[in-house]
């Protein structure tokens, strides 16, 4: 078939299918997010227009925002479907680098198709081209190399024959999954080649389930059999493998208390008798207490990020770590006994090797007892009576009114700690806390993607005023396209959680809360978040108290669905009231700071903490 590079790429996208967790066959690439410019409007844009009724194209309003929407889509579909994002060259392309970092850090698939300068170079330098004096082959798209699992620049049409199978491999591989970047020089997009028809034959991609090595499984079983206080830790890999049910049956059969990472939240029903709560800095005191006493930790599908491990202080120094992970890179961390393989298959085979073995009942009973104490603590934090409202109270309202089919999200600031530690699961795999990259603005853009992927329930995203101001344009994108979700905007006058970190380590308050920022005004202006959201096509509700928030959030849920657009709820919140899980986090406290005894004291405490 004689086609342009762009036409061939679009036809290939249409031919790719995926198997969802429930066995349904769905499009691997369900749609394209696009902002057109001179680097992609004629080549790829024309090819997409030819198939506009088969492959939906959604217009974004920032390249970063629409790429983050694609990331949110991938998370909401458990990595079984992949958003495609295209931009022009230069600033349009570079705007997507942050989103690529989000996808890379969180091991989520997204296909980025930035336009590029002319491969033929005849018209160089072109508009928006950055020239490198010592390397004529370099373009701004080389910036994607550091945040892509797979990168290629298509300088000849026939390169697609070799590249596209690798693209599909990375996007669907449980170990290597992440962002793929194909830089598309604008002249090459329009060049033709006689492509074989076989390239466009329908193909169903089924995520492989690699079986662990039997010897590693036997070693892991031996370690677990010798444990007196074993703990099961579930991460995002359990979610993407569809192994939540298997993990719970494993815990029940062997009496293991269960805890979750950030990416693994809502895998376990909140009131399950073995649920110890979420682990780590933003987790729960209950899980952290059990982790400190555990002699063996079986960590399944987690990359063991510092917020989960509390900078590797949440576990006992003598703990034996056993990991089950599809990625060897993650499995070998911290000297663990590594079992490399699929979470579902690995737990099934490990269960057979552990037949007849159970942890002691006294240890198993600790999970529900400690979590009960944590629940009582969260209940006290959620109780009404304080003004302005606290984050814990806001999360409590959303939690109480949510249903099993609903989906909740956040990404940055203080809300991850409130949502991870305080949320009580209403349904399985119904939370997305982007805390791998903690990207401000993901809350809005990712919610747009999640709303597209999950039309059966209400998507609610919680964000602070800082995140809203960082990236709000996709509220209009979602309103224009007709994708409803609810955004709860908590206005606490600045970057409050960083002010907490700053002052909590002895530093002076500076440049985080508006009261500590430089301004030439005696009374600086404030943002009218309600008016701004309304101007972007959203339905808006304002609340001053928790009682008003209950009514506003209930109405927002209804209005979003009925009017097919985002509904924004705005409420003032307290800037310095937080849910504390009682874990430690290592940050760069200065060894010396002129005139600050508090900083020196905190540095000395840190060094004592780190001492052997």
From TrEMBL:
List each copy of the Thiamine pyrophosphate enzyme TPP-binding domain by range: 431-570
Question: Where does the Thiamine pyrophosphate enzyme central domain lie?
Answer: 218-350
- Domain of life assignment: Bacteria
| Cross-referenced InterPro entries | DHS-like_NAD/FAD-binding_dom, Myo_inos_IolD, THDP-binding, Thiamin_PyroP_enz_cen_dom, Thiamin_PyroP_enz_TPP-bd_dom, TPP_enz, TPP_enzyme_TPP-bd
Record GO biological process: inositol catabolic process; isoleucine biosynthetic process; L-valine biosynthetic process
Does the keyword section mention Hydrolase? yes
A cellular component annotation (GO) from this entry = acetolactate synthase complex
Which parts of the sequence belong to the Thiamine pyrophosphate enzyme N-terminal TPP-binding domain? 39-128
Q: Which UniProt keywords apply?
A: Hydrolase, Thiamine pyrophosphate
Q: Name one GO molecular function term.
A: magnesium ion binding
Name the family the entry cites.
Answer: Belongs to the TPP enzyme family.
Q: Which NCBIfam families match?
A: myo_inos_iolD (TIGR04377)
Question: This chain belongs to which protein, by name?
Answer: 3D-(3,5/4)-trihydroxycyclohexane-1,2-dione acylhydrolase (Decyclizing)
Organism field:
Amycolatopsis arida
């Amino acid at each position: 078939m004689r086609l342009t590079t762009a036409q061939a790429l679009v036809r290939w996208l249409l031919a790719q299918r995926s198997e969802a967790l429930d066995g349904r066959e769905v499009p691997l690439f369900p749609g394209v997010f696009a902002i057109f410019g001179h680097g992609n409007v004629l080549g790829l844009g024309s090819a997409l227009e030819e198939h506009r009724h088969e492959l939906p194209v959604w217009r974004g309003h920032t390249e970063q925002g629409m790429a983050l929407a694609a990331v949110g889509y991938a998370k909401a579909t458990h990595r079984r479907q992949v958003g495609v994002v295209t931009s022009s060259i230069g600033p349009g392309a570079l705007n997507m680098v942050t989103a690529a970092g989000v996808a890379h850090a969180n091991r989520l698939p997204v296909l980025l198709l930035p336009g590029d300068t002319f491969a033929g170079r005849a018209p160089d330098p072109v508009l928006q081209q950055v020239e490198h004096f010592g390397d004529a082959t370099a373009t701004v798209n080389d910036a994607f190399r550091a945040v892509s699992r797979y990168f290629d620049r298509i300088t000849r049409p026939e390169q697609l024959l070799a590249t596209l199978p690798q693209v599909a491999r990375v996007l669907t591989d449980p170990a290597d999954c992440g962002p793929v970047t194909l830089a598309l020089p604008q002249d090459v997009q329009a060049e033709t080649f006689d492509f074989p028809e076989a390239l466009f034959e329908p193909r169903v991609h089924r995520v492989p389930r690699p079986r662990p090595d039997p010897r590693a499984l036997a070693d892991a079983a031996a370690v677990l059999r010798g444990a007196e206080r074993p703990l099961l830790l579930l991460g995002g890999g359990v979610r993407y493998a569809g192994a939540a049910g298997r993990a719970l049956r494993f815990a029940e059969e062997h009496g293991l208390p269960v805890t979750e990472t950030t990416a693994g939240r809502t895998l376990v029903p909140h009131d399950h008798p073995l649920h110890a709560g979420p682990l780590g800095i933003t987790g729960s005191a209950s899980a952290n207490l059990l982790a400190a006493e555990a002699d063996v930790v079986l960590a399944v599908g987690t990359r063991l990020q510092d917020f989960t491990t509390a900078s590797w202080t949440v576990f006992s120094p003598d703990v034996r770590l056993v990991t089950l992970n599809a990625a060897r890179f993650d499995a070998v961390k911290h000297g663990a006994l590594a079992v490399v393989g699929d979470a579902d298959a690995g737990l099934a085979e490990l269960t057979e090797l552990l037949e007849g073995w159970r942890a002691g009942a006294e240890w198993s009973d600790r999970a529900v007892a400690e979590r009960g104490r944590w629940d009582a603590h969260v209940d006290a934090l959620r109780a009404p009576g304080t003004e302005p409202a606290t984050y814990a109270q806001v999360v409590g309202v959303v939690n109480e009114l949510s249903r099993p089919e609903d989906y909740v999200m956040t990404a940055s600031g203080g809300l991850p700690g409130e949502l991870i530690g305080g949320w009580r699961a209403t349904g399985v795999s119904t939370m997305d806390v982007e805390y791998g990259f903690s990207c401000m603005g993901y809350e809005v853009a990712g919610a747009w993607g999640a709303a597209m992927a999950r039309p059966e329930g209400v998507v609610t995203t919680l964000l602070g005023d800082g995140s809203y101001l960082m990236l709000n344009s996709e509220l209009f994108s979602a309103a224009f396209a007709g994708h409803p979700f609810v955004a709860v905007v908590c206005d606490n006058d600045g970057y409050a959680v960083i002010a907490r970190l700053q002052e909590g380590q002895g530093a002076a308050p500076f440049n985080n809360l508006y009261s500590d920022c430089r301004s030439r005004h005696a009374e600086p202006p404030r943002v009218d978040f309600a008016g701004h959201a309304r101007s972007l096509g959203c339905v808006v509700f304002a609340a001053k108290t928790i009682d008003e928030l209950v009514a506003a959030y209930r109405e927002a849920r209804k209005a979003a669905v009925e009017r097919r657009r985002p509904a924004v709820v705005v409420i003032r919140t307290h800037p310095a009231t937080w849910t504390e899980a009682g874990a430690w986090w290592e940050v760069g406290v200065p060894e010396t700071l002129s005139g600050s005894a508090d900083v020196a004291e905190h540095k000395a405490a840190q060094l004592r903490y780190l001492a052997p």
